[in-house]
Structures are given as C-alpha cells and as structure tokens.
Design a protein that fits this description.
alpha/beta; Membrane-bound Lytic Murein Transglycosylase D, Chain A; 3 domains; ten-stranded mixed β-sheet; two-stranded antiparallel ribbon; about 30% helix
Length: about 325
C-alpha cells in the first residue's frame, strides 16, 4: 500500500492527540496517523515520539503495544542559548540551507541545530560555543574540520564503516551519538505498481538518488545491490532530475529521506502524482563529527553526548523534535 501526500491542514481529528493508543492488528504508523490526525503523512510525529517503544520497527506495529499520540506544540519558542556566542573557543560548523535540519532561516536554526544547542547547554561543565555557517559543504571535511579550523561539524550521515573503511568520514573522524533517526523512503508515481515488502521485491528495479548522496544502505551486509548489479541506480545532479525521470517512466522509484522527498514533491507540484511507498527503504541517523586528530576531540564529544543524554532524559529532546516536525508539515500546507 502507498501513502499519498495529502498535506491536509489540522481539522477536528486534532482532538485525538495527546492520548495513548493501543495498537490493533493490522495497524501501521500511517493508518494510526490518518485516524488521529486526519493526515497519514504525519506518521513521523508518532514515529519520533515512540522510538523506544517501536524498537526498530518502522511501519508494521505489534498489536497490544501502547503508542503515545502527541499534539504538535502551538506557538513554539526555541530554547534560550546563553552559551551561543560569537568568537567562542568551541566552534561548530554547518552548511545551512538544509531544512528542517540546519537552516539559518528556520526557527532555532533548524531541528538538529536546536538539538545541539540544547545538548551543549545541558552538558557537564558547559562552555561558550559558536555555530559557523559555511555554505560550501564540500570544504567542511577537508580542509575546515580535518585541519581543525573548526572543532565539530554537523549534520552528517554515518557511512557503513565496516564495509567502506576507506571512506573519508570513517578514516578521519569520530562520530557523536546519533542526533536523530532519518527514515529513507522510496517515492513512486501514484499510478505505479511498485511493491516493497521485502528486499527481494526491489531486485531488477530502477532507482534514482542524486549524485553526492550516500549509497551505503544499498550495499550494506546482505544487500549488495550495487556491487552485484541487482538494482539499477541513476544518479543525476539533483533530486528534481530524479523526479522528472520518475514522471517520464525512466525509473521505478526515487529514494530520498522522508523530509527532502516530501518537500520536493510539493515544490515541484507533484502532490497527488507522486507518493511514498509505505515501508522505508532504510533507517539512517544524523551525527556530529570531529577529527580523529583533534587534541580535545574526546572531551568535546563527551560533552555533547552527555548533554544529549540529559536532553533525552528530561523529555525536552522529544519536545524539540515534535515542534520542528509540526513546523515542517505546516510549511508544506
């Protein structure tokens, strides 16, 4: 079954949130979101609010388990950041223009930016820090972070270092604890017939993912789709070109993270014509990174990781996630 991006605005069904729901046989996150929000697309609200309960599940749910159905926070205000100061000794590097994760024009500078801000404010022996916005992301690993011109960079997807040990991120950088999960989806035409229940369903299919995006999830252990030529992957320069190829019938599906895919569908006027396949292709995560040769690398990572742990324990982590998810879906309406 596929889920259409209806992008409906809040309606009477919003009254069915901030409640606990017991999973029924056959339920999926999208069906539960449709029942409680009148909008199946907003399954991410439930997904991020129940990650401990889901324990690796994405769409297929275990009957009898309880899920918390959150209401998006209204009139959200980002946390105060008294330690965020220009010229501080601790510097963090990000590119921006990457909504909803890191974007100077997004509330709080973006979801991941605000998570890092909040974690550093809660870290042991907190110190002043500065966030530097450098749009040339190709320069971030080398030379800017590799030569320690800045201390940490974010957000980055972690490669499969067990199978791609030569990757520059694997050889040169340490990773923080995960900042947030990132479901990677398949998007097909609304009149398409792609079924993805198990990996064997995609053998021989034509997928599209823009050049520069990670591909390790397509060649991970037990999958080896690219190495063995089991999947035909097109890699044009942009996601727009991928969706154009999809509409022209040149590929069977476009593969992007759930946020970028939804945003591109709306921006290109493809709402109702392109839909996500319900089961995510993979689950990645976003991280902060620091050079392995940084003399204070372990100290900085400990500070950030300890702050993240406190943020999760306090419940504020979930509140920040839910707030930004609500902003994201509202902006697409």
């Amino acid at each position: 079954m596929s889920v259409a991006f209806g992008l409906a605005g809040p309606g009477p069904a919003w009254a069915l949130c901030d409640v606990t729901y017991r999973v029924q046989p056959g339920d999926t996150l999208t069906s539960v979101a449709a029942a409680h929000y009148d909008d199946a697309d907003q399954w991410t609200l439930i997904y991020y609010a129940n990650q401990a309960v889901l324990a690796g599940q994405v769409q297929t749910l275990v009957a009898g388990r309880d899920l918390f159905i959150p209401c998006p926070e209204e009139n959200p205000v980002p946390d105060a950041t008294p330690l965020l100061q220009t010229g501080a000794e601790l510097t963090l590097l990000t590119a921006g223009a990457n909504a909803p994760f890191s974007d100077r024009d997004w509330p709080g500078g973006g979801l991941v930016t605000e998570l890092i801000n909040a974690a550093l404010e809660l870290s042991p022996a907190p110190v002043p820090y500065e966030i530097v916005w450098e749009p040339e992301r190709a320069q971030h690993l080398a030379p800017l972070l590799g030569e320690k011109r800045y201390d940490m960079g974010f957000p980055w997807v972690k490669p499969d270092c067990a199978t791609t040990a030569e990757d520059a991120l694997c050889t040169g950088f340490h990773f923080s604890d995960p900042l947030m999960d990132l479901p990677v989806m398949l998007f097909q035409r609304a009149d398409g017939d792609l079924v993805y229940d198990e990996d064997a369903d995609l053998l021989g299919k034509r997928l599209c993912r823009p050049a520069g995006k990670f591909t390790h999830d397509l060649d991970r252990s037990g999958r080896r789709w690219l190495e063995q030529g089991q999947v035909d992957l097109s890699q044009p320069d942009t996601s727009e070109e991928c969706f154009a190829a999809l509409m022209a019938g040149q590929v069977d599906a476009v593969s992007l993270d759930v946020f970028e895919g939804a945003a591109k569908i709306v921006a290109m006027g493809l709402r109702g014509r392109v839909v996500p396949v319900e089961k995510p292709l993979s689950r990645e995560a976003l991280y902060a990174v620091i050079s392995k040769t940084h003399w204070r690398g372990t100290t900085h990572l400990y500070r950030l990781n300890a702050g993240l742990a406190k943020l999760r324990e306090s419940g504020r982590y979930g509140e920040i996630l839910q707030r930004h998810l609500a902003i994201f879906w509202e902006k697409l309406n």
